[in-house]
Design goal:
22% strand, alpha/beta, D-Maltodextrin-Binding Protein, domain 2, two-stranded parallel sheet, 11 strands
């Protein structure tokens, strides 16, 4: 009888733990390294308020996030660009219907080494640099040094926006050095006095120098009023209208008094 009683207690405890595991919420978020700091800060705050929910976050680029959404391996895809028609078709073919939620605004800022005396640049000059036409900084008033061009890989939403708005859909020249994330570009530029790269506003640090574009500085104000020429919304996509914990999390992200204050903390521009 004693062993039977112990067995019953063990079984009861096992059922309790199993029930907890079943009812505990889990949200998987994958995608953009630009949106990553926002997702991390908001998720941390959300989990503090909802300790029964576990949120896992990984980067890898907007394209990879949307691919995960299509494949069904994520609940939310972070993206710094809008989903492409061909991606929508792939998702629909698999019974998933992507729903976009704009969660913040951002601007893409060209950055150089802190020793570079250049303070501003034009859209035309940026395009020429990234096409390989401008090869020395002295051509645009900088030091007599070669230009080292650093860009993002093609799975990046930041690259997609740069490709459209700066390059006018012209290709970045083959000599450009490719980096997989905003953080990697900051590191590469900070270590190379000849380099130029571009990053989301939230990744700005003192280790690199931001350039104005067409005499306009990238900021929250110029992003919201539309005067900065390389601005964009940032998105979270779900594979259908969200439900349960995912819906509650999306509502938290978009709430002006809750998630949106962490957008500012991450260095980006809130919706409101």
């Amino acid at each position: 009888m004693k062993f039977k009683g112990i067995a019953i207690i063990i079984l009861a405890l096992a059922l309790c733990f199993t029930a907890s595991a079943v009812w505990a919420g889990k949200i998987e978020i994958k995608g953009s390294t630009t949106v990553l700091p926002i997702a991390q800060k908001v998720a941390e705050a959300y989990m503090k308020q909802n300790p029964d929910v576990k949120i896992s976050i990984s980067g890898g680029g907007s394209g990879n996030g949307i691919k995960a959404l299509i494949d069904g391996s994520t609940d939310i895809a972070d993206s710094s660009r809008f989903i492409k028609p061909k991606e929508v078709k792939l998702a629909v073919d698999k019974g998933r219907y992507p729903v976009p939620f704009a969660v913040a605004y951002d601007c893409i800022v060209p950055v150089v080494h802190s020793s570079n005396n250049i303070k501003g640049i034009t859209m035309a000059q940026l395009k020429d640099i990234y096409m390989g036409k401008i090869k020395n900084w002295k051509k645009i008033g900088g030091p007599d040094r070669p230009v080292v061009v650093i860009s993002r890989d093609t799975s990046s939403g930041t690259y997609e926006v740069w490709h459209k708005k700066v390059m006018k859909k012209e290709r970045v020249f083959p000599g450009a050095l490719l980096q997989a994330s905003n953080g990697a570009i900051v590191q590469a530029v900070s270590k190379n006095k000849n380099a130029i790269g571009y990053i989301g506003l939230g990744y700005m640090t003192d280790s690199v120098k931001a350039l104005s574009v067409n005499k306009i500085k990238g900021s929250a104000e110029t992003t919201l009023n539309g005067t900065y020429p390389v601005s964009r919304p940032l998105y979270m996509f779900t594979p259908g209208w969200p439900k349960g914990d995912v819906l509650k999390f999306i509502n938290f992200v978009m709430n002006p008094e809750k998630g949106q204050k962490y957008v500012s903390d991450a260095g980006y521009v809130p919706l409101y």
